[in-house]
Fold these 3 entries.
Entry 1:
Amino acid sequence: MSASSSRLNAGGIINRNETLSFKFDGKSYAGHPGDSLASALLANNVKIVGRGFKYHRPRGVMSAGQEEGGAILTVGTGARREPNVKATMQPLYGGLESFGQNAWPSVARDFGRVNDIGSRFLGAGFYYKTFFGIRGGTKDWMLFEKIIRKAAGMGTASREPDPAHYETAHTSCDVLVVGAGPAGIAAATQAAEAGLDVVIAEQDFTLGGDYLSQPDGAHRAVEAVAKIGSLGVSVMLRTQVFGLYDGCVAGLIESVTDQETGMQVRQRMWIVRPRQIIIATGAIERPIAFGNNDRPGIMGSAGLRTYLNRYAIKPGQEAVIATTNDSGYATAADLKASGAQVTLLDARTHGPDAPEGVEVLRGRVPVKGEGWSELQGLQIGKLSESGEVSVEKSIGCDLAAVSGGWSPVVNLTSHRGVKPVWSEEMDCFLPGETKEPIKVCGSAAGLWDEEECRLSGAAAAAEAARDLGVNAPVVERPEPRRTNTPTMALYEVTLPGKKLKSFVDPQHDVTTGDIRLAHQEGFVSVEHMKRYTTLGMATDQGKVGNVIGIALMAAATGAPVSKTGTTTFRPPYSPISIGAIAGRSVKQHFRPNRLTPLDAWNKKHNAVMTQAGLWWRPWYYPITPTESVDDAYEREMKVTRECVGLCDVSSLGKIMVQGPDAGEFLNRLYVNGFGKLAVGKARYGVMLRDDGVVYDDGTTWRLSENDFLMTTTTANAAGVMAKLEEYLQTRWPELKVSVASVSDQWAGIAVAGPKSRDVLEAVTTECDLSNEAFPFMGIREGVIADKKVYLARISFSGERAYEVYVRSGDAEPVADALWGATKPLGGCLYGTEALGAMRVEKGHVAGSELDGRTTLEDLGLGKMASSKKAYIGKALAAREGLHDADRKQLVGIIPTGDGKRLRAGALLMADTEQRGHGEGEITAVTYSVELGHWIGLGLIRGGVERWDGKTAISADPVRDGNTEVRIVSPHFLDPKGERMHG
Amino acid sequence: MIIIPCPFCGDRDHSEFSYGGDATVKYPALDASAEDWYNAVYLRKNPRGAHTEYWHHVGGCRSWLVVERDTLTHEISSAKYAHDGYGDSA
């Protein structure tokens, strides 16, 4: 053993033939495959690996597991930097770069340590007391907060996008076993032997759990693992069951790789639907709160045993082990065997026999750690029968290990709403009873003896098998019981008249003093105490400190722990990356991309695309590489209004409404009548919600007596479809109507402009297109490019216009034919920008006016409502408040000065009173080529009746500031509609 | 993750469904008074425990189902098709 290494010459489950080089705070070290980052740091004698959250006290490795409170590091660099990694759970890999957190310039020399000296000012609730109600109010608080947040905190995440890949996977199984220690492996073995499909998930990177902490652990773990492998159990390593959800669905995160490996996923989230769950999550060792119990060199006794046996590390030469239970004896024996000098303090007066060569001091407790940045000694005290502690002496040591008893990991049953139950006898919380198919075994169920753990695992699996109707032997399930040398309930060591800095939650720097202060200030409920002191709110979520905190609160209030209660554990069990939850649903895969049947055709014709909801639609079609969107849409609308333009309108919702009662159904849906609509005609309709507010609009065509084709807005297509199904299946089951969405089955192309009929006449056969034979709002069948099409003479632009509908698969040849006839006439293709601009010129309402608040009258559509029939929303639309003359109503808006532009989203203010939310807002704007100035639509109190011709202020403080505008009628062009009828 | 036993598709995850509100609400006739409509649209109970509600199998067979769910435990005790048939279809 070299001077700088605490690695033992033999033993451990590490591959000594291979060396991995890694960095911590810029310095290079070496470890082996099988090491955790924490064990590799310990092997290299790196004692200080972190700094406390508030007081910046130096911290070392405190445990060997998920509960780690000291070795919280940042791993990786650049975009792959991950903060708050528990070094104890991080497998070492070659090239790993790690950094201490929360310190400047480094964890070894941190200036923030001055906080420790002034620490009496930083107790529980100091934020609230110091900074609330200060002079200057919120502003000053925000300034102070910035400084405090900088001083206190965890690591910082990368601000770059995460380059790693993640994915989500689903699976099911008969039995999911959580935890692969002695109990979990026994359960998996028993369940698999019963012929069940078993998945076992282990958060560690090596299977075996507590086996691995024992001197002969490697051998026993290998045997057990080989057995479950041969039985066909699916083993998931480095897989944390982070939550149990409704229906006993389990959420798992599998860490696949830590390194950059191309397309390989970094983590995989599993959604598992097991029929039975066996929880074998073990127990976490509790510390004892005593003075300076956070000094580097002080760790959990079980953690120390893991470092000795699993990693072959002896972190010190002279050691004191302090225990309240039998488990400290095993650590003492193993540590002695490694050649260290060991003193064992047992708080109890009776305990097992002293391990060979170990001096056992009974009735002795640790009082205070000595040494400034690293442990140099331990002051010990004698515990009297009445519980008083008197200082006895100091023992020089460079290593101390503490066991204050065990806390079963009851988190997963807590996720299912099952409260843990305090057992006075066992001195711990035990999982409560559940009616769900969940069984808890091993140390998680309060069993400390290994053989009993194995038996309880087998018993749980046999029960699970029988619950699933599968034969399995009856195995008696051992019950938690008090041994001859039970754990002593000791949570804190205090000295009369002396103040010790004793940590309960090392991650959030919560001391026993903070808990007493919380009690003194009236925060008696455990939930309040938790929030006031922040106990258990760091990344370990109270795995170490909660029980001590609750016990101290119980002592302060004089109530038993069972009456003091426990906080509720919620998923995730330990922090998981957001990336793993997002899986592949990122960037362009964040939501589905819907493409119209003409998508490729549009792109071939130079369309610049834009996303409208899920749909990708042509935004504009530049004719030169440099043509801007503004130039393009102005050109497209001019050409369309003067000649002809084509537009892909395939994204409109299309629903077939068929059956003998289809007309009656539409009559109930729309505010206007549809029952008497002639075959071969279309009608514009508006539908309301139950509450009388406008929901959607569109044209509906009668194709035959019992067949209608309803069109909806692009945005509401799915919602309208669901509503139609709801009405037919739940409200009006008597109506004989069938509905089917055909949005994707039909492509739609608008042919708009004075020359639209010329285009169609050039390409259409089997259809008389004359104005007499095919008037406005007519529906006809025809043939274009040998494909059957529906032609609808409807107009969104206000020009003479048609829409051509064709089966999606036939869309391209029809588009080719139409374009072939359009181009020679000087026509164009136009996108959504020109489409929207032309609707503004016509004063047609669209999504920005159908905002879920406007009524028919608000939108100037009041005259459409039929008085002869009832329809959805009619009753509530009649409410007085919806007819108030002061409501916001649709108006047109023009700037008062030449060349001034309008801005959608601006507020409309009366000239005299420019404050608050104003009188209304501008909903849509465009430059009108035909009128030669900007125009807009908006909603304003009192509408055209109150405002016609008057001026208002368009207030747009974040962009252009204030502009004077004039309120006019929303129908800017051709108000009588002569163009589209001609 | 609630599993809803769709009578047409079998046990399916709730993510395939969308919630459709209280199924005990009887919507009045379209020509009923505003008060009747107000009661149906705005006044809802928020019970703790058993609840009869609509779920729309929007990512499946598109049926509207009447589901009995415990609002406390999310236990589903039954799911049936909301539409009880025309009666004369045979």
Entry 2:
Amino acid sequence: MSYFREAQAWWARSNDKVIYWAWFVAAAFMLWLALIPTDTYAQLITASLILTLLIVARRFNLAGAMREIFLFLAAYLSLRYFFWRTFNTLVYFDPLSFTLAIMLYLAEIYGIIIYLLGLFVNIHPLDRASPELPEDPETWPTVDIFIPTYNEDPSIIELTLYATVQLDYPKSRYTVNLCDDGGTDQKCNDAVPAKAAAAQARRKELQEMCDRIGANYCTRAKNLHAKAGNVNNAFNKTSGELVLILDVDHVPTRDILRRTVGLFLEDPKLFLVQTPHFFLNPDPIEKNLDTFKVMPNESEMFYSVIQRGLDFWNAAFFCGSAAVLRRTYLNEVGGISGETITEDAETALLLHSKGYTSAFIRRPMVAGLSPETLGGFMVQRSRWAMGMVQIFLLKNPMLLKGLNLGQRLCYLNCCFFWFFAYGRLVYMIAPLGFLIFGLKVYNATVMEFFAYAIPHMLAAMFISDFLYGKVRWSFISELYELIQAPYTMPSIIQVLLKPRAPTFIVTPKGEQLDKDFISPLGTPFYTLLFATIIGLLVGFYKYFHYPMDRSVIVITMAWCTLNLVMIFAAIGVMFERRQRRAWPRIPENLTGTLEGAGMIENIKVDEVAMGGIRVLLSLQMYRKLKLGQGVILNVQSSQTDGIPLSFGMKILKKRIVNGVPHLVVQFDYQTDAERKAAVLLIYGDSERWVRFQEVRMTKRGIMGSLGFIILQGMRHSYAHWSYATMLFIKWILQSIKNYILSWMRWFGGIFAWN
Amino acid sequence: MRLLLLTALLCVNLSSLALAQTTTQPAPATPAPASPTSPAGSATPLPAAPPPVILDPNTRTLASFMGKSGQVWLKHDEAKYGFSVPISARMNVTGGQVVLNYVNSVSLLGERSLIYLTWDEKVLGQLPLMGTNPTGRLIAPLDIKDYTKPGYHDLSINVAQHYTLKCENPSAPELWTQVDPISSTITLKYELKPLKPRLSELADLIDDKLWLPYKLHVVTTSPSGMQDQHLNWGALVTQRAALYLKYRPYEFTHGSSIITNSDQVVIGTRDEIASYVPDIANNISNSFIGIYPNPKDPRYFILVISGSNVEGVSKAVRAFSAMSFPLPASPTMDVSDVALPPIAPRENPLMAQPSTSYRFSQFGFRSGTLQGMNTGGFRFVVNMPADFYVAEHVNLRFRLHFAHGARLRPDSVFNIFLNGRFENVIYLNTDSGSVYRDYALNVPLRSFDKGENIVEFVPQMVPLVSDQCEIIQTENLLFTLFDDSIMDVPAATRYVKMPDMRLTARTGFPYLESTTGSSCGVHVASTDSGSIAAAWMLMAKLSRVAGAPMTEALVSFRPPPPERELIVVGLNSNIPEQLRSAAHVKFDSAGKFAEVFNTMPEGTATISQGFLGFLRSLGLDTTEPPAAPSKKLATVSGTNPTADWGVLLQFQSPNASGKTVTLCTAGSGEILQARVASLVKDEWWTSIYGDTMVWGEPLRSIATQTFGDTYYLGSSNPGTAVQYQFSQHPVLWIGAVFVAVLLFAWLTRRALAMFRSKHHSKPSAAKH
């Protein structure tokens, strides 16, 4: 027994190292198992069995060790594919074929690396709770809120200011600072008088706004280092222990400081608490494909899953807004670092390398705006791509001292991800290389393809669906990447050639689209569509004329067909829909009363927006009220400790929907207080954003998702072509008309002369 | 949709898995090959097969001169099929005839179509080919003495075929004639000549050109007086004789007296053989080889290999058995003072080794040019080691240097065949002709059989101008393959599953690790002449595989050392007890096989056809479907079930791990000798399969099975064994993966928990 106790004691003492060494040995064993070359038939059997198990397991809510087993089984299939692909399929036939074959291989290697890194990052996502603050508010840290602005609409700025001055935090313990880069001395003294006048007017307007609302206006002499310089300027003029940075369109909820500040008290080495970016309006892709109400937003994968995974590895990084940072640590790195144009991530990288910690709170506590147009979207994504590639090149997380292995891999994942454009474009052209030009890009038999490639693809889809299924449907990533690829690829190449060249470009927000139009960004997709259709036609021809190659042709055509689905969806996105509403509408479920036409009744509110509120009421009252009539709306808000908020409203619309009378009432602001109350009502409650997210967090499954994309893509692509056809017909008719008119004028001129 | 996919995958997987289990089950029994007897030549028209009739010994079917089975097709406007007919120097041919049974197309025009027979390009006879009378028989006499000299003679069947008096398509499908090689015969009237033999003429005396199966009687001292050296002498002499005969069948007998009606060799010391050849004994020197006509029958010879003592005889035997020893043009030779080269390990020059590049010339190939259409191809033989094991994707690469003529029609191709199977093709599409260097072609190494492989390069050239009424010239149809073309053999490991008697029959593995047989030990368990002769015949067969006598093989009446791979030949009752216990076939005390035949398990399919068949039906798998296994059990009843049967077994040696025992036995010496005499004939030898073979007479009574324990020989690298086992038994692989994943997942979980407790110990990060 004593020996047993000694063994136990030894195990307990040496547990860490033993476990880690054993883990490496087990990993090496798995790699060795993946490396063994076996007969194709045996591979087919094994892969089929593993896939069967994965399909069965997916139906269950896997947790604990079962989760890891699922992930590693799927990863094993991908490793098998990787080694087979590397050692068996790269054969030289001719220079052109080999070039494309290597390009395709590198694209696949990229995919597998990202896939494995993603597995690492998301192996154990962390769910943090917000610790309670001490009872004495005087012991709470002081916070400076920075809202950098450049050229955004003042109405957006006002909204954010209203929200920030109403936070659930002692007024004496925080300040609100509007950091205006649009009204700097440099701008106000611009050589162009019109620009100078605009800057001066802007400065004046915003100063008055800040005075009115109770915020501090801050600007600087020169526009140096873009947003980072702007924030650093305000940084040096303030003294709070913590700083909360908000983009100008990121309206915070009341509890943002309550839920984040406590973490700084808990962990003295904490430099950052990042919270999710949550968007009230659809991004251009969601809008143009009409997916906003049913499909999770693109950002939710990053904020609901990936950041939690990064948080586990102490690598949750600063995303530029909706984050609280500790001043003292920021001071150590000179504030928000600006060597790259994604200064936020760069700052976090530096602070991580100094041994400080970060945290991520999953709860959305800001409500922001996505870019309205594809142009704005591409500007934003190009900036992110360039910035992260700059970090990859200039800061290189794999070599930066001070990071641990987990952090290095996490940052590598985040930086390397942005090379997706290369992979997407290669996947588009590779099958065309074979079909149209007969290039031999993939040396494998059909049997091998089914034994190695198909299981890998399915396994990758299963893992993706397993990890992200609720927040990112299958094939949606591919669609987003395809749409961005033609535009981020040149940006990346630019950075690779000149890493220090890129400059910060502000993402346009709050744009309004008055009418539908076809985006000028569609050209690459028309080209791809044309090429892919040609490829498929050639494929059909070859199918009948080259019977020996039929199986390969079928596989390649299937690949092209999948590409075609994506291209059609991308073309659907290229048809920009008009944005009718200035303010996003938010579903809600509030109770209150409505006073008007001499009546006062209990009503329900099912939709709120800064422009107005939708009210459900009784038929009797509905009939009595008239359009344009003033009413008073009293609603219960969770943010006012039971005290109802009261608003003067005007009736904008009346309708009966499914037998239920509705009124759309517009805010009729008489005072600032009313505006503030409206902001509080609409934007103050983070629980609302949680519910908003949860409605869309549904799994669709792989086939369901594919069907969804096919349907939406075809619908909107058809709309695109219909619109284009209509424009073309209009143009033809107009041309004919102009021609006839010119003839008539000419004839008329002759008669007149005569 | 998900349920459908799940169900489909489950069904596929379960069926594949269930059938994959059967890879460990016994291999199927082989079907019995065709009977060697042929139906008698008669006027019975084809295609009805006449009943088999034993032929006159002087008559052979044309099929017996063909390298492969099948009918003889003569197509297109002009065609020719040639046979190489041997005539031995020992044969005094006085005449003969050729009988040709044929069927021609009913479309042929009698005025312009004919069939004619040539012998060494001399026309023997001709007949018109008439569409109105499609069956025919051409009988041509062979009475020309000058044309029947010793050697190989070309007997060609030639046709000129036309279907119209006007211009025609020379390759029209209706232009054909079929000759039945089984009912078509050649008869030679000959007698064996009286001999005045000389040692330099041994190749013409032990002659592969003799028409009848060759018999050699070996005379030594009486079986009771035989020692190991007698066994060894007889083994070497008979092996050399078998090699003289090349591929012709042979039969060796043993005795202690001179007989008639057969060549014989007398081996022993002077004192031992003096009573057999008293007239010669006095002339025997210290080490002596002599050849004489048999005084009782001068058509046959007596070869005497002797000496004054054991060493002298051994030296004479070594000299005789050497492949290139210069024997004099005299009846006798004294080798006492001849210095023989030392025995050294000899590599089979035709054996391909891994990670080696070979020029075609190393396999005996010489540059050659083919001209015309349907000219045949280039071929050479390459042997692959018996225990090669490579991954599926590993390719052998040919780097060809060749040239082809100009103005070939676009459908001209250059086909590559391996063992008669089409493997690859080169498209000859350069209109101006071309010379290629290092044209690379890959053939999967697994496509090669273990042992002998025939590689054929066959150009199919068609003239560009080939229409009706065109002058068609084929002088531009030229193709040259250069003998400095290269064959790159990739790296390979050694790993093979045993027992596998088919492998042994094809390659001699594991007995011919060295072609001198240094790893081979033959235990002649019985001392009767039948067993001795049987052992010699088996060794002779192996020597043909090796290409030279196994000078270092150990043959003995006692069990050889355990480090040798063992062949045991003897009667059931003389099988050593240790081997009897180790064999997977159980003998009873009387050496009977009662148990094995009553309980022999049936063979089952070795390859799953379920999923592969499914893929094939979709056109997604073009691999050849496995041959359907045939089941054949040897059923014997009676009190002495082994009486007429020969039994061949192979199993792992109980004396040494990794060593093989091949056991050949029967109930009596006569039976054993007769069975082995049949076994070493090609049509039987190629039927050897599995680890258990039982055969009798006639040829159809072969049964083979695989049901003993398997073992593996080859590389000590565990990776090779794992690769092999996982490929053959996916269940093992799946099990290993699951164990690895479970372990890895558990360790990962522990590591993550440790990481979490170290880095996320704050309450906010606690698990919720």
Entry 3:
Amino acid sequence: MSRWFVPKMKMSDILLANSNILLLLPRLGIKLGFGDRSVIEVCQQNQVSPLFVIMVCNCYTFDDYEPDVSTFSNDDLRSLVPYLVASHNYYVNERLPHIERHLNHVAAQAGMRYAESLHKFFLDYRDEVVFHFAYEEANVFPNIEKCLSNQPMSKTSTGFMSKSHDAIVDKLSDLTQIIFKYVPINGLDEELNELVFAILQLSFDLEKHAMIEDKIVLPLLARQEAGRK
Amino acid sequence: MRPLLSVLVVEPSTIVIEGLKVLLDEAGGFNMLAPLHDATILTERLHSQKPDLLIINPALLAQPVATHINAIARQMPNMPIVALVYQYFSPQILQSFSALLDICENRAHVASLLGDCCNRKTDEVETENYELTEREVDVLVLLAQGFSSKEIADQLNISIHTVNTHRKNITHKTGIKSVAGLAVYATLHNFSN
């Protein structure tokens, strides 16, 4: 028996095993209401690759799971770019504004000087994330599409991509450390918890997102690059 | 190079012992002492060999297991005790161990799990000081103002290696890695001016 999720499992069983996967479904283009259908059936219905969906579910569930690009066909990987772009939109349009709202409120309670420096830290962070995503969408993702349809790729630096993944994950962890340990706030326990959980959840999500890019996107482009030489 | 970690395994099954030995040899960094098949002479062996790590099947200890484990831990405070499990034990029993090694553990993780629990034990023993020293505060303030390590070295008249050591210690003590995060930390602690 496999230690990981497999495509013939029922979609509902996977959600029961890890309810956080609910957050991934819209980004994978899967709608709720799948009854007792298997992942294969649900994916066929929603026109997305079952192997790809299972890979994402495994990444977000098992700490020691690492995807291997060689196990996917070009057809499976056609679900990759739409998923990555949908995730970027989810982070930028939903999660970061949610964190910003709570952070501003918490920072305002903590006094002007703290408020300013926390707010600036967050805005700089948000700009960095938005810049990183925009870079990937403009320079890296078009190459994935070309690569999957066997067209020649344009030159791009993937070094920047994986280096800035570390920076993005590190800074969010810094924000958690600062709020946890150093911001003196009384009487805001619930909102503070909400804020810290939102940051931790985004950190986890970004870590897995970066892993998918590092383990799938980079080797895919490198393989194509090597084939061209 | 790190010295080899000496490991004492107490486990009835030869098959399991030999399997563990293969995995540890493969990973390197471990020296497996002659194993014991039961716990009758465990105390004597612990005192004569002073292993760095004890791996024991909890089924070999008489009830109450937790009391026995705590007694061993008191005698050998620096030695992590890992439970080698392949059957159900109650959480009360398992929580007295430093770590759990499940018989189904992934091949790649066995050695890192054991290595980690040795590191953690050493960390716990040394009581750490998380206060920044005066010099670290000097470096922190300049970092927060946006100076590079090289510029800080010139301003403080120290080598760039010393600056980097201070940076490493600051990050270790505060838990903050990015320069932007350290700038916020400096403001919160009134270090900026």
